[in-house]
Specification:
GO molecular function: diaminopimelate decarboxylase activity
Order of helices and strands: EHEHEHEHEHEEHEHEHEEHHEEEEEH
Oligomer: single chain
Mean pLDDT: 97
Number of helices: 11
CATH class of the largest domain: Alpha Beta
InterPro entries: Ala_racemase/Decarboxylase_C, De-COase2_C, Nsp_de-COase, PLP-binding_barrel
Protein name: Carboxynorspermidine decarboxylase
GO biological process, one term: lysine biosynthetic process via diaminopimelate
Keywords: Decarboxylase, Lyase, Pyridoxal phosphate, Spermidine biosynthesis
Number of domains: 2
Number of strands: 16
Amino acid sequence: MRWEQLPTPCYVVDISRLKGNLEILKGVADRTGCEILLAQKAFSMYSLYPLIGEYLSGCTSSGLCEARLGAEEMGKENHIYSPAYRAEEFPAICGLCSHIIFNSFAQLEKYGPAAIERGRSVGLRINPQYSTQEAHAIYDPCATGSRLGVTLENFRPDLLENVEGLHFHTLCEQDAYDLDATLEVIEEAFGPYMERMKWINFGGGHHITRPGYHIEVLEKCIRRIQNRYQVQVYLEPGEAIALDAGYLVTEVLEIVKNGTDTAILDTSAACHMPDVLEMPYRPPLRESGEPGEKSYTCRLAGPTCLAGDIIGDYSFDHRLAPGERLVFEDMAIYSMVKNNTFNGMRLPGIAVLEEDGECRIIKEFGYEDFKMRL
């Protein structure tokens, strides 16, 4: 199937770009000895797990369903972290996961014995209370009053006997200099406890595959912690794995005129690219410019009844018309995993763009996928 034959809307993952990202990540792991895991919360396209598993050490999960997916479809190291576990699910989690990370000492006391009995490596998430980001408060785990991780004030060294690792996740789309600054704070507060560990998990939010990212600084951080504390370092990026490796192909359905031209697309910000409204985020669009940059500026919007289902304003070299196809970029991450069927919107198909330029449909959706959720 050629690109122009794809049904719309459709997510398309570019295998060549995905491999490029994976090669960068594997290079970091090979040079430092760290282990890099796929954070499934950002990208769970399991048909590509065999490929990803050729480069990475395994998966991380946020709950039982992701843990099962990682175990079944990749079958390598399988880590899990949750702010709180469900008692009825924990036996299954123990059967699926190699590393189980707890959010509090209360959770450790409640579930730790069962995990240890099954021979699992037990970890604890810490909160250094040090924020390095300003743009996306909704994604700041170190915000005042955060529920994520144990603060130094609430730390219980007397309960560390069977704890083998410490985990922190403080970054969001950030460079290695932010990690370096965070590590200084963590070492000052938790250094004595790090010496008792077998592994330290740096979490995610590292934009390792972004052009200009300072990989050499990241590698220095990894080596410093591994050498100083004699631990195994883990990283669990999500975005970096499929960053700029996917597209969302859509079609213009209609042009509405009301002070400005608005193109109604067959894709929805609210349903198919939720980060556009949540962050907010302006997705890159192929062959377009900023408003006013090119000769024709048009607002792009979804077909739902939500008045705010607006993707953004873009400019073009020509006037848009019904039937025209547009291609949003960087649509592999936080898209398929977050979409929904509000208004009965059909979920986009899922396809891959092979290295030879051919496209292959992985999955298509219809009425039953809407109905079964209700």
